[in-house]
Amino acid sequence: MPVRNLMSSAVRLTALSAAMAAALMCGSARADDYTDIAQLLKNGKTEQALQRTDTSLAANPRDPQMRFLRAVALTNLNRTEDAVAALRQLTEDYPELPEPYNNLAVIYARQGELEKARAALENAVRNNPDYAVAHENLGDIHVRLAYQSYAQARAKGGRAANLQPKMKLLKEVLQLSSTAAKPAQPAASAPAAAEAPARGAPKP
Q: Residue 99 contacts by C-beta under 8 Å, 6 or more apart in sequence?
């Protein structure tokens, strides 16, 4: 799932899968819109991309892929509350789609709401058990939760000799996630949508 330097976790933002997007397509003109907006996002022209999504949604307000692209644009503009609202509405209107849950998890992780992030990712992998990005993100969330639990145990008088080696290993995993993750670029070819940035795990 990926946006680098946007998120404080190794969780990554993703686009709607090409297969799902294709199923939701309604003609070549719509495909061109998706491609153009994805390219604008890739080139950092986020305001223009947002304007294009708003124009398209005025004519077809239920288009799930266009709504998803709009949420990606809002996220990239740091309009977090608007992005969360857009993604939550997508999960209500199209609960079978895993990607909105994944991107919600990215935002929740950035905000330190790891339990919410975990719940969102569990919905994502439940909807699509083959969704590798969400599985990876869920693993990163579990690592962060484990580190927090060990830190709490140490703070409450737990045995440092047992806890310190575990915390050291988890810290290394978190740092590895941070350096290994690479930002995904918006897809330039129809019908895939933009993959937005999510990057590295915070250093505990």
A: 14, 15, 16, 17, 20, 68, 124
